[in-house]
Amino acid sequence: MTIQFIPPNPEQKRALEELENLLAILNKPITKELKQNKIFVKYFTKALFLAGKSYKKQPVKTLPKVTHEVRGFDQSLQKNMEEIQIPNLPSIKSPIPQAPRIPSAPKPLTDIIPEQPAQIQDLNNVIVEGNILKFNILEPVMESLDWKIFSIVKNDLKEKIISNPNILQNQNFLMEEIQKTCKELKIKYSDNYLQKIKYYLTKYLKGYGKIDPLIQDSNITEIIASSYSNIQVRYKNELLNTNIAFDSNEELDNFLINLAEKSGKSLSDSNPELNINFQGLRIEAFYNPIMGSKFTIRKQ
User: Fold this and answer.
1) Are residues 236 and 251 in the same domain?
2) How many other β-carbons are positioned within 10 Å of the β-carbon of residue 191?
3) H or E segment to which residue 153 belongs
4) DSSP structure class, residue 233
5) In angstroms, rounded to a whole number, what is the distance separating the alpha carbons of residues 230 and 243?
6) Which are the contacts of 274, defined by CB distance < 8 A and separation ≥ 6?
7) 126 in Cβ contact with 134 (< 8 Å)
8) CB-CB contact of 150 with 142 (8 Å)
């Protein structure tokens, strides 16, 4: 029998060499750098594992033990790797979108009960700064709803006042009219609220509205309005500007119309001039809604 020697296959030889090199590496003693690399691989693997888990996962304390061995693998190294504890990593929580905050609805007008009491202007608090006579008037603040009630009551009272000017002398009359209007509009009210509306009604119906402080000041003898925003007074024989003015031409026009009606006269485009003596005042006015109205009031 003839024995033949088969030369080794180059591919098998190369595989055996690679296997021997791998075993040689595994049999080397464990260095500090190798331990750090293995710990990093463990942590990185753990992070990938946690990322793939659901949000309800339980924290994993340790990695599963190795259930197989590589021939020639150092057993002490395998034991050390099994004892490595992986610390609990913080769980990854996705942010929960917050629902937009819906502002609370504003209170309806019927629930507004102003509690600010009416205050009469302090005529003693008048100062002269340069060429301006300044009045520091303390009055309750009127809102749009308050002016609405004011206008309704004022229009309802217009004919009654013309027929009986002394009707305003009744202290309870205005309060009853304001109460009735609030009930018709279903608006809640307090005593202070009724007093505030009454204060402005008395000021405009019985007094002189925006320029009432000028009328009441005994040191003022003449009031000259060349436009709605320019009112001058003769104060202690000196002509001064004032910080009191109308807000618009329309407000000035309404003031002159109301003043004429209180004196039993009328103003219109066809009858624009007003010359009267009324309540100790000499009033001269010219009504012109287009070019601008003007007036002069002299105290007699």
Assistant:
1) yes
2) 10
3) helix 144-163
4) E
5) 9
6) 256, 259, 260, 265, 267, 283, 284, 285, 286, 287, 295
7) yes
8) yes
Residues 278-290 have pLDDT tens digits of 999 999 999 999 9
Has residue 159 been placed in a domain? yes
In a domain, 129, yes or no: no
Domain boundary (169, 191, 206) is at 206
Say if 202 falls within a structural domain: yes
What pLDDT sits at residue 5? 52
Instruction: Report d(CA 286, CA 299) in Å as an integer.
Output: 18
Range of the domain at 18: 10-57+71-83
pLDDT digits (tens, 9 = 90+) for 172-216: 888 999 999 999 999 989 999 999 999 888 888 888 989 999 999
Strands 132-135 and 238-242: parallel
Please give the structure tokens belonging to residue 19. 């296997």
Cα–Cα dist 276/297, whole Å: 10
Give 254-286 pLDDT, tens digit per residue. 899 889 988 889 899 999 999 999 999 999 999
